[in-house]
Design a protein that fits this description.
Blueprint lengths: L3 E6 L2 E10 L6 E8 L3 H17 L11 H12 L5 H19 L9 H14 L9 H20 L26 H12 L3 H13 L3 H5 L6 E2 L4 E4 L1 E7 L5 E7 L7 E4 L2 H20 L23 H13 L1
Antiparallel strand pairs: 1-2, 2-3, 4-5, 5-8, 6-7
Helix pairs in contact: 2-3, 2-5, 3-5, 4-5, 6-7, 7-9
């Protein structure tokens, strides 16, 4: 519970209310206010100030705490609950768009007008080659700002989250276009004439419904060819290690849940059997063994590491363009 005191200062009263400990330094913090009038009026003003401090609408000046301080402190606290890829994209978003514009500004001086001005700046010339940034990316920037500033409010660094009053751009609604089955078959057949491994991964993406990260993490031990069943239990995602270097992480579970099993059709089973024989022959030719838990899709003869997710996207786009 906040407590307050008053004392005479010339022709005014100095009101002082205890507002808890500083979240970083641990020092005691106070909210101070000067009022003029009688002692009774000063008492009423003090009671109002105590109420404001208790409800969080009045907080101490944040001093040297900047938006950058709030962003880094929030990300450090949230990192254990994020996937490595989410951490990396959030860091990139903060460093590229948010911190250069607002990073050194005291967090209590960031207002909705500043955020809207930033969104306008991003939309006009923050994209590739100085072009406009997409509305979806601007909305992502807004989302990060909102959670950072909301955490600053909970820490009582600020009285109100200004992002709640900001206006991010609307995202145009797009109707997804789905290729017909014949188009998918034609595309997979065309790829198969040039890259049988990649064609198999595309077939499994279409038939099994596996995501790119799940196919990259797929191991032979996840597949029962006799029964015709595949277990999707892991995924590969890009992130950064403790030194800041990009690294591929293998995570348990899928993006949507802890994992699931999928029945395989006979043609896909036969394609997987043929792929297993090819992988085993490659390993033998290189003088290594193909273990049971080897990755199904790998550039290494022993299948020690799965394909990198971004390389799958690059190969797919190259095939589409050709």
């Amino acid at each position: 519970m906040a407590t307050g005191s008053k004392r005479r200062r010339g022709d005014a009263w100095q009101l002082r209310v205890y507002a808890g400990l500083h979240p970083v330094t641990g020092k005691r913090r106070y909210v101070t206010k000067f009022v003029r009038g009688s002692e009774r009026e000063a008492d009423r003003a003090l009671r109002r100030l105590v109420d404001e401090v208790e409800e969080g609408s009045r907080v101490p000046a944040a001093g040297r705490r900047t938006f950058k301080d709030a962003a880094h402190k929030w990300l450090a606290a949230s990192r254990p609950d994020m996937s490595p890829s989410t951490v990396m994209t959030t860091e990139d978003c903060l460093e590229r768009y948010r911190i250069p514009y607002l990073g050194d500004r005291p967090v209590e001086r960031v207002g909705a007008e500043d955020l809207d001005a930033l969104y306008g700046e991003l939309r006009s010339r923050a994209g590739k080659n100085g072009g406009p940034l997409s509305p979806a990316t601007v909305v992502r920037v807004h989302g990060i700002a909102r959670v950072v500033l909301e955490q600053a409010r909970r820490w009582r660094w600020i009285a109100r989250n200004p992002a709640l009053d900001a206006t991010p751009p609307p995202i145009p609604k797009r109707r997804p276009t789905t290729p017909a089955a014949a188009q998918v078959a034609t595309f997979v057949t065309w790829v198969g004439e040039r890259d049988t491994d990649f064609a198999l991964s595309l077939r499994m993406a279409a038939i099994v419904g596996a995501r790119r990260a799940e196919l990259c993490a797929l191991r032979w031990s996840d597949i029962d060819l006799d029964v015709g069943r595949l277990a999707v239990t892991h995924r590969l995602v890009a992130g950064r290690d403790s030194a800041g270097h990009e690294k591929i992480f293998e995570l348990e579970g899928t993006k949507a849940n802890a994992g699931h099993a999928v029945a395989l059709d006979p043609v896909t089973v036969e394609r997987l059997r043929a792929h297993w024989r090819v992988c085993a022959e490659r390993a033998l030719a290189c003088g290594v063994r193909l273990p049971r838990d080897a990755n199904v899709f790998s550039i290494q003869p022993d299948g020690a590491e799965g394909w990198k997710p971004h390389s799958v996207t690059q190969r797919f786009l190259a095939c589409v363009q050709r």
